[in-house]
Here is the input.
Amino acid sequence: MVKLESVSKMFGDFLAVDNLSMDVAEGEFLTLLGPSGCGKTTTLRLIAGFEQPTSGNVYIGNKMVNDVPPYRRDVNTVFQNYALFPHLTVYENIAFGLRLRRLDPSTIDERVRWALKLVKLDNLGERKPRQLSGGQQQRVALARALVCHPKVLLLDEPLGALDLKMRKAMQIELKSLQRRLGVTFIYVTHDQEEALAMSDRIAVMNAGIVHQLDTAAAIYEYPKTRFVADFIGEANLLQARVSEITADTVWAEVNGHRLPCARREGLRPDQAIWIMVRPENIRVLPVSSQEAPAPSEKTAVVKGVLREVVYLGATLKAITDINPGLTITAARLSSSSVVSIPTDSEVQLHWPSSAGHILTE
Amino acid sequence: MAVFPQLRRQRSKREEPIGEIPGGQRHRAILLMPGMIWLVIFSILPLALVVVYSFASRGTYGGIEFKWTLENYARLADRLYLAILWRSFLFAFATTVLCLVLGYPMAYAIASSPEPRKNRLLLLIVVPFWTNFLIRTYAWIIILRGQGLINGLLMHLGLISEPLRMLYTPGAVLLGFVYNWLPFMILPLYASLEKIDRSYIEAAMDLGAQGRYVLTKVILPLSLPGIAAGCVLVFIPALAMFAIPDLLGGARTMLVGNLIKNQFLSARNWPFGSAASVFLIVAMLLALFIYRHVLQRAQGHG
Ligand SMILES: Nc1ncnc2c1ncn2[C@@H]1O[C@H](COP(=O)(O)OP(=O)(O)OP(=O)(O)O)[C@@H](O)[C@H]1O
Ligand SMILES: [Mg+2]
Here is the structure.
């Protein structure tokens, strides 16, 4: 539906988008995720036509649109600040795009009412935008874009200005709306939880580069780069060196510990790598515990000193010092036995070797 | 009764428009005093005097006789004076329209220029004010008169054989008006165009609008406060102007400003001059009233 082909965008000599390629399927919910200033808005503006690529091509529905102005592109945008016309009522705002299409008045009226109903604002049509709450303005912006029946809807942090509760509710609503209408959504956010909750696929960006474009689960479990591992969820990133490669295990050396990791192609002995272990895969046991499995090809075990247990509601974080300069965080349910371990006592951490994911970048 | 007197006092403090003035109410009165005295002596009192005079009669030697009459106002309804009032309105109106038509594209161009050029262009708009108003108007005499710059150039080029009559015509007065008040139109227009968020224009384009539609449906309505302010700043002083018609106009361009000036200075008929002034003030108040109405509508109260 939307295809970017090696698209780059320079502002002066600043490279805002760097050789970006992606292919968005029809009806897909694709999220651009990344920290502030990484080029998300710029990418969206390249698709909407407000910026011209310095190099590369933009396709919408198989047609190259590099030279097509925004008003002729079959996409609509929900802007970061909504950009509702302050001098027009909610109804007129939504009708704006339809009036341009020279539809007859009864069709316009019908479609505006459809859109108002879609976003549950049936009886606020006569209000001016500034008489609405942030959440209501957000819905109007959505209705104004959707009423034009675009092939692709671009949303730039549409929930950024809402409070947490409202945001969660709108996430679910937006997602079900998208599924119901079958419109392709390209959604921008810097909130990783939001991205994980809503997207079919996520493009994780940093400094103008897409680090990884994949499903939420793949990005979380098999991040390609340290940036992705660190940005999505919490991660223990251990600097390591490949010490031995066997049939189904890679042994890595971390600060004098030999740890088994999930098998991965393309590694050579002595190569510098990073191991990523998600905190929720790590168990913490007292050093004397009988439950502890022995170190093996299947299980990584390290000993350390429990420094702190941080209570977070449903879960808690156990922070353990292994050696000077190496700290590993485990996340357990608050009901787990970790609470009974006194801090500053010796503990052993263990995790299945399949949870040790090797990164090379 | 008050369960949390502390709380309540704090809240009411915060609701006060300006912060606490030390010393409270009395202190505020003292701060306002100089301005109030100024206003009363130089604005309210003279205005009241004008209103009072307008109901008085003219003394034999040009003084004021306090015999109350409506004669002065009745005289304004004379065909001669009605023509002057109508002409004044037409000149002010035409000036406003011309300034708007000329000023809007200029203000738009300035507002959409990049930063350094923007400031240079704004400076150019203000530069004429470095010269005295009378000198600027005299300059037009030099440009427009029979042996002036334009006629000289046209005759030199052989386009005309006799000088065109440009000075002392209604056209010259209108030119002087537009020249004089154009900056007063451009500056408020610029201020309101400058404030328009670019994302509104992009939103309109995103919805399929281009060029003229964006201008008429988005930019123009959003700059309405600037248009209203510019029109008031031009229309009201243009209604009262007498110096430009005096210098650039002939006998047929007598405006209400000239009428009032003549009644006070040469004809020494202060009561009639006052009546004309009161009429002018009412007309201006009417313009301000319309301005307020437009502004409120633009801000979505109406
Ligand atoms: N018109 C412009 N001129 C110069 N630099 C720009 C322009 N637009 C964006 N940039 C730069 O490009 C980079 C990417 O900007 P962009 O707005 O795409 O970031 P973003 O990922 O949307 O960030 P945020 O989450 O804060 O909205 C930023 O460093 C920004 O300063
Ligand atoms: Mg952005």
Chain B has a mean pLDDT of 88. The CA atoms of residues 263 and 269 of chain B lie 5 Å apart. The pocket of adenosine-5'-triphosphate (ligand 1) is lined by residues A 11, 14, 16, 34, 36-42, 190 (CB under 6 Å).
